[in-house]
């Protein structure tokens, strides 16, 4: 099979798909037209699918010969960011942008699916294309798995990629073991007692309570956990008060916890609650928490699948970089690698010699040639995984 020519014949359509998606971004759990567009594209190529999985999720199935099924995931949601790129296909939805490259992920996966569908009679297994909503918020991966996306047929291995503007097109970035941290986000409401700012002794100042608590929370990383066990405790939002001379009755804080294991994440969550209880008791205040319904586990790559990705990259001439340490950022692809052996990796998307804006930035735009590169690595990896499965049988 001549994958190079098939990719080249598909590339122009994949670019158009990418530009359409970039022009029409939708926020998490609102990906209605995005899902419709994906389905229309699958219909045009006679690829069967199931839609409306856990919201706006889609699973398309390319049935080959033999047993075994490989899953490939693309996230489909955008961000609440105003685009400033100035490209002709910039977002037409005010305040919403594909600033994390999910438009590229979708286009790559659709292109990969088109090629696989052309050669399905030559495949020694099946491939499930998983288009996942709500990666940026509630964790659509977990919801799709709960809805059975890894069954019928059962997926034996998963792969996924994420574009990376820090590396050139034609390269990938791998991490063995824990690639991304586990995460649990929280909202905390601190209840005090409102009073006049000139008479703070008549109230309970939740701003002072919050300030004390924020400083104490930082000891979790420096005094509660070993230096060899990285954790992050960050407060990203604090809101309280309406005027300079009014002690408010409440303060709302939002924060995030990160750790490299579920056990450590649970431990530091308990410590946060202990610190909150102790600090509020000192001042006569109280605190209530709202935690993530389903915290993200750490994203742990399987060595065997990573080996196959790395060899696939070598075979097509990609530069392979290795992450020196675990990223404390999180990705809900972790739910897939928790369920089945899998590999998640970064795909370089910067033109040679160029410096791109980072992800989650209104000026981010990826190199369209990375769409071709993404198809190449996904196809090569899937075929290698199938070959390994057929030898095992």
CATH C-level category of the largest domain: Alpha Beta
**pLDDT < 50 runs, ≥5 residues:** none
**Rg, Å, rounded:** 23 Å
Strand content: 25-35%
* First-to-last CA distance: 23 Å
Q: How many discrete domains?
A: 2
Q: Examine the coordinates and then state which fold CATH places here, giving the name of the CATH topology of the largest domain.
A: Aminopeptidase
Average pLDDT, to the nearest integer? 97
Strand order of the largest sheet: 1-2-4-3-5-16-6-15
- Class by alpha and beta content: alpha/beta
Shape: elongated
Characterize the largest beta sheet: strand count, sense, and whether it forms a barrel: 8 strands, mixed
CATH architecture of the largest domain: 3-Layer(aba) Sandwich
Find the CATH superfamily of the largest domain: Zn peptidases
Give the proportion of residues in helices.
25-40%
Taken in chain order, the helices and strands follow as: HHEEEHEHEEEEEHHEEEHEEHEHEH
Please, how many helices? 10
Q: Got a strand count?
A: 16
């Amino acid at each position: 099979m001549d994958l190079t020519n098939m990719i080249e014949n598909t590339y122009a359509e994949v670019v158009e798909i990418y530009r359409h998606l970039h022009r029409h971004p939708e926020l998490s759990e609102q990906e209605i037209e995005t899902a419709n567009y994906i389905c229309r594209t699958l219909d045009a190529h006679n690829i069967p699918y199931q839609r409306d999985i856990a919201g706006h999720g889609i699973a398309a199935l390319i049935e080959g010969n033999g047993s075994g099924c490989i899953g490939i995931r693309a996230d489909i949601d955008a961000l609440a960011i105003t685009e400033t790129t100035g490209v002709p296909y910039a977002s037409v939805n005010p305040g919403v942008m594909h600033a994390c490259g999910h438009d590229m992920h979708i286009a790559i996966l659709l292109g990969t699916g088109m090629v696989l569908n052309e050669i399905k009679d030559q495949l020694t297994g099946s491939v499930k294309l998983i288009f996942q909503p709500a990666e940026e918020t509630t964790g659509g991966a977990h919801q799709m798995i709960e809805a059975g996306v890894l069954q019928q047929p059962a997926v034996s291995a998963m792969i996924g990629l994420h574009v990376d503007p820090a590396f050139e097109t034609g390269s990938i970035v791998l991490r063995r073991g824990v690639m991304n941290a586990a995460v649990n986000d929280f909202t905390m409401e601190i209840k005090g007692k409102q009073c006049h700012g000139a008479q703070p002794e008549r109230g309970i100042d939740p701003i002072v309570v919050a300030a004390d608590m924020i400083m104490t929370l930082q000891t979790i990383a420096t005094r509660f956990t070993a230096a060899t066990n990285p954790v992050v405790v960050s407060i990203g939002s604090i809101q309280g008060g309406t005027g300079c001379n009014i002690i408010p009755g409440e303060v709302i804080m939002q924060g995030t916890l990160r750790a490299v294991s579920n056990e450590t994440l649970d431990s530091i969550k308990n410590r946060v609650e202990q610190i909150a209880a102790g600090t509020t008791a000192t001042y006569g205040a109280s605190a209530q928490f709202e935690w993530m319904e389903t915290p993200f586990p750490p994203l742990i790559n399987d060595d065997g699948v990573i080996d196959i990705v790395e060899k696939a990259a070598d075979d097509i001439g990609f530069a392979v970089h290795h992450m020196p340490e675990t990223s404390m950022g999180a990705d809900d692809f972790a739910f897939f690698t928790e369920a089945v052996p899998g590999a998640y990796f970064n795909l370089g998307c910067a033109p040679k010699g160029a410096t791109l804006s980072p992800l989650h930035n209104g000026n981010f735009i990826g190199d369209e040639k990375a769409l071709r590169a993404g198809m190449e690595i996904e196809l090569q990896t899937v075929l290698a995984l199938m070959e390994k499965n057929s030898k095992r049988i």
